């Protein structure tokens, strides 16, 4: 059913194709729209990403540090009096103890030791990477779609999945040096004049690993592509179920309806489920990118973290990550559905 054919689509595949086609032409319709507000949405998407990256940067810094093994290695020391074995003298023993970092006290620790501006470490690479990564993704997507249309059925779910997967692979590879620099800057604990900037970071990575160092963590990022795929699969299933259930009522009203809060809920639920399944790749990626990392390889790191820290280690920082991504996905999918609705009905 996914390969190229001349026969018309079956009723079962028509719904999938219709959903895929509306995604395919949405940006072209936005750019050509006669409504200035709708037409500006294409540019607004990039601006929204930049604003979102700026506002949520403190959460990103805290999340990255919670994922890192450097946080686990930071210890305090406590002392206690111990009687000697012969009962004649006492000894003062000092032993290391691990300090438990919560989100709140980690925020406080960063501000106290590095200054409030440290919460925005890595922001510049994030902003630099937004526009080129989006441009590369959509360009690659269009080219791969043309390529796969020679083999797969136009408009099929497999066509869009293959195109999205390949374009994501290309974008992840080319943009990895930017995200490597961002992670290193977020993990830097120095303050004041000693604080790491982009030039120092590039020099440090090059001295430590050479050019191959800029691709650190790229295999974990490849694994992370499954999160986006799973998110959209879950969202489309929830949306399809709702549209089927609601179809009879729409026919009676003779006009389509849009339940925007429900679409936003679907977007948030889909992201929550996708993140819960795929989150360990985020921890692995951070461990591979940290300074003087003792980890080598994606699967080796995954197994090593699980053996040493169990599930809590693989899900370090997931609370902060959910605080950032779930509301963002809810707003994103709600905006997406609203724009489609306006284009079809205005």
Concise account of the structure shown:
This protein has 346 residues and is mainly alpha-helical.
Number of domains: 1
Would you list the SSEs in sequence order as H and E? HHHHHHEEHHHHHHHHH
Radius of gyration: 25 Å
Count of alpha/pi helices: 15
Overall shape: globular
Distance between the termini: 35 Å
Overall strand count: 2
Q: How are the strands of the biggest sheet laid out side by side?
A: 1-2
CATH architecture: Alpha/alpha barrel
Q: Topology, please?
A:
Layout lengths: L10 H14 L1 H7 L3 H4 L1 H15 L1 H11 L1 H5 L1 E9 L6 E9 L4 H12 L8 H26 L8 H31 L10 H12 L8 H36 L6 H19 L1 H10 L8 H17 L3 H28 L1
Antiparallel strand pairs: 1-2
Task: Describe it.
The model is unreliable at 6-19, 33-42, 75-80 and 94-98 (pLDDT under 50). Helices cover 71% and strands 5% of the residues. The radius of gyration is 25 Å and the shape is globular. Helix 4 (41-55) crosses helix 8 (123-148). The two termini are 35 Å apart. The protein has helices at 11-24, 26-32, 36-39, 41-55, 57-67, 69-73, 103-114, 123-148, 157-187, 198-209, 218-253, 260-278, 280-289, 298-314, 318-345; strands at residues 75-83, 90-98. The protein has 15 helices and two strands. The chain has one domain (11-73, 121-182, 210-345): Alpha/alpha barrel (Mitochondrial carrier fold), CATH 1.50.40.10. The relative contact order is 0.12. A hairpin with a 6-residue loop joins strand 1 (75-83) and strand 2. It has 346 residues and is mostly helical. A two-stranded antiparallel sheet has the order 1-2.
